[in-house]
Each structure stands twice: as structure tokens, then as C-alpha cells.
Design a protein that fits this description.
Mean pLDDT of chain A: 91
Number of strands of chain A: 3
Oligomer: homodimer
Order of helices and strands of chain A: HHEHHEEHH
Low-confidence stretches of chain A: none
Shape of chain A: globular
Number of helices of chain A: 6
DNA sequence: CAGGATCCGGTTAGATACTG
DNA sequence: CAGTATCTAACCGGATCCTG
């Protein structure tokens, strides 16, 4: 008697394509990490800011983390770093136009997060 | 002579409110982790699936990680877990309606991620 | 089939101290 | 002011083995 053949599970690939996963993952990776969201939002609202100004606006972040996160964002062309020739030197960090486009997604995350919190915490 | 008073930096708080940060962070936390996005998308496209079916659909994931991620999502009311009384037992995992609402954000992440990739990789 | 238990290497993030 | 260097504790994710 023939074995009952179990067909391999293959879903409609349209929504499971590899590069679709990658695109979403890229976005998540950029936004992941403890301070990225706050940092982006702070620069979005605050415009151009200096290193210490940012540190004061984000309570709890240390210089090491702040420097690292700023590097990451700069490498992704999301912020620009400008050394001003003042004395002592100051550095101006600012979201690029591309960086500002992230705020749309962040706002959606806020909206969903609020709904989610009500759902999980129960009203 | 009076010192030049540096005003403390206080930005319009509307976009920097603590609970706004938290809401966005909740969303990120749910979507962070190596397999969450793929897992949600797989269940979104595939409907109800068994443990092993999911494992086959997500190449590389091990049973430990899969179990953990499923637990996380269930704790957040994003998926439902149903034990079927078959022999041997099988378990059916399925996105809840609330879970399906995540796909909107995920799709936006994909769209942004594609744009971003073109921007960084240069064309 | 559906997982839990254990071990283990790599990454992450904080504290502290120091430099140009 | 604007960071870097170093050390360490915590966490993440994988491999392997085991159970009901």
C-alpha cells in the first residue's frame, strides 16, 4: 500500500521572499539597540544638537553608547556630523533628510504600541 | 560682570514624552530578535501551522529558539497556541487578529528598507 | 511530534577613567 | 567639549541531548 504522501509545505512565495525579509530586517536593525529610537526622535524634534546637548536630553546614556550610536547612524547616512571651528571645538549632529523619513515609521510604531499596551494590560 | 547664562535645553515636549518613547520601544522590542519578523510573516501568510511546519519554513531556526519566540509572541497575545488531540499530539500556532495588525508596520519597514538599501548601496 | 535542559562562545551595554 | 580605552556583568543565540 502506498504511503500517504505528505506534500512539502510551500507557501505562496510572494510574501516570504528572501529579499523582502532582508528589507524589513534592515529597518529593524537600524532601529534596534537601546537608544536609537530616542536618539532619532530627539534629533528629529531638536534639530542640530551638540554631543553634550544630546546627552543631557537623553537621561542615562553614557558617552560611549552615545558615540557608538551616532557612528552607526552616520554610517547609515541618517545623520550628519559637522565639526565647528569654535574653541573649544564643538560638533553638530543633525538628521539628514533621509534620516527624517524614519519618523513616519516611528510614529506608526508609537500608534501600534499604544494600542498594544491597552490590549495586553487590559484597558 | 554677569555670567552668560546658558539656558538648559528643553525641547517642545510633545514629541519627546516618556510614554511616547515607551510605546515605540514596545513595538521595536516585540519585533526585535533574530526570528520574530520571519515568524510573524510566515504565520501571516501561512495561517495555522504546526511546530515542525514552521521550523521547516524558517531554515536555520532550532527548536529552542522557535519555542522561545513562540512563547514571547503568545505572551503578547499575538499568536494563539492550540493543542490538537491527535496521536501523537500536534500543536497549532496561529496569529491572532491583533497579531495580524503587525503586518502593516512590517510592510512599511520593507518599503523603507528597500529605499534605504538603494540609498546606502548607491543606486 | 513538541518541546525542555544544559552548556558555551560571542555580543551588548554600563561604569570608570583618561585624552586632545 | 567631544570623545576613546578598558574591564566586566548580563544577555543572546546556537548545538547537543533528552523527555512525554
Amino acid at each position: 500500500m502506498a504511503m500517504k504522501r505528505k506534500e512539502p509545505i510551500v507557501l505562496d512565495t510572494a510574501c516570504l521572499r528572501e529579499d523582502e525579509h532582508i528589507a524589513a530586517r534592515d529597518t529593524i536593525d537600524i532601529l534596534s539597540g537601546k537608544w536609537k529610537l530616542q536618539l532619532i526622535t530627539t534629533l528629529h524634534c531638536g534639530g542640530a544638537l551638540q554631543f553634550m546637548e544630546i546627552q543631557r536630553l537623553i537621561p542615562g546614556i553614557g558617552p560611549k553608547m552615545l558615540a557608538r550610536e551616532l557612528h552607526d547612524l552616520e554610517a547609515n547616512l541618517l545623520i550628519s556630523r559637522t565639526v565647528m571651528d569654535t574653541r573649544p571645538v564643538t560638533v553638530r549632529y543633525e538628521l539628514t533628510p533621509h534620516g527624517h523619513t524614519l519618523q513616519g515609521i516611528i510614529n506608526e510604531m508609537r500608534a501600534w504600541g499604544r494600542i498594544h499596551r491597552r490590549m495586553v494590560m487590559g484597558r
